[in-house]
Amino acid sequence: MGKGMECEHSEQMTMLMSLGLDGLLDADGKYRLQRHMTACRSCQLEWDAMRQVSSLFEQSPMVGPPLGFAIRVERRLDEKVKQRHRTFGGLAVLTSSLSLAGMTVAAVVLIVLGVVAWYWLGSVPAVHQGTSALSLVASGVGLMGKGASFFLKDLLVRYGLPLVLVLGLGLVLLMGMWTWIFVKRPGSSQRNGYV
Prior knowledge:
Layout: H1 10-21, H2 27-39, H3 41-59, H4 69-121, H5 125-130, H6 132-139, H7 143-184
Helix pairs in contact: 1-2, 1-3, 2-3, 4-7, 6-7
């Protein structure tokens, strides 16, 4: 082989050279490497360069990490874990607070609208006749129960489907948020990148 030509076995020979430097070549590998290098000048030069670099590494003293390095790394990792716990705990509190607040507001709005509907529609005879069975059931609960029953019946007759869709969408969003928090929480058994 000439000096300008590249060795056609360079990848295989480079692998054999690397194993030879690490002392991991068997007798057959050593024989193949020696036989090839006697015929290939470019591989012989590469072998010499690799041995020089290896000898430089062997002569250089091993330098370890500075004192306290491992302790500092462990503290930083602990802080990151604590921060994740705080973040997900805050999200859990926020979503549960929003859920509770939303249910409370919805209950108050229903009660207020029921009372308002009772006062506005209380004098209309058709309303009394159409909801007499409902009002008899609700009479045991009192004025609030009657108003709520009138309001709910009217609300469901007029806006039943959109109301159910909006409530369903809200429940799906809340379930999605809770599922996401459960899956991404630190320390969960699933592989989520936080453990």
